Amino acid sequence: MRPVILLACFSAVCLAQQSSPATPLARNEWTITAAHQTTDGRISHAQGHVELVTTDLRFRADAVDMDEAKTTAHLVGHVTVEIPNRGTLTADEADYDLISGDLSLKLKVTPAH
């Protein structure tokens, strides 16, 4: 059977209900750590054990591309989104708008036989 791809969209601000991660950040601020980071113009690339922490959420992924001008992040590979006091979402890919809090998750689901 062919895998089914599901897209889920959320407003992360609503999910987090204004809770903040362990590291206090001002509204619309974020930090990113990774094994390797490079910059190509306005795009920052982070690879290897990437952690992106925002005011409301904590992301982990294999790689993240950040568009500094658009304030968007594209996360790929073993993506987890920790929502304080709510739980954790997992996905193959995610797109996150750091200003609006809009979050899209891409999942691959293989139907049961």
How would you characterize the largest beta sheet? 8 strands, antiparallel
Approximate helicity band: under 10%
Strand percentage lies at over 45%
Average pLDDT rating: 79
Given the C-alpha coordinates, what overall shape results?
globular
What is the CA-based Rg, rounded? 14 Å
Enumerate the spans where pLDDT stays under 50 for 5 or more consecutive residues.
4-23
The secondary structure category is mainly beta
Number of strands: 8
What pattern of helices and strands is seen along the backbone?
Answer: EHEEEEEEE
N→C terminal distance:
8 Å
Q: Please give the count of helices.
A: 1
Note down, in words, how this protein is organized.
The structure is a single chain. The protein has 113 residues and is mainly β. It has one helix and eight strands, in the order βαβββββββ. Strands 1, 2, 3, 4, 5, 6, 7 and 8 form an eight-stranded antiparallel sheet that branches.
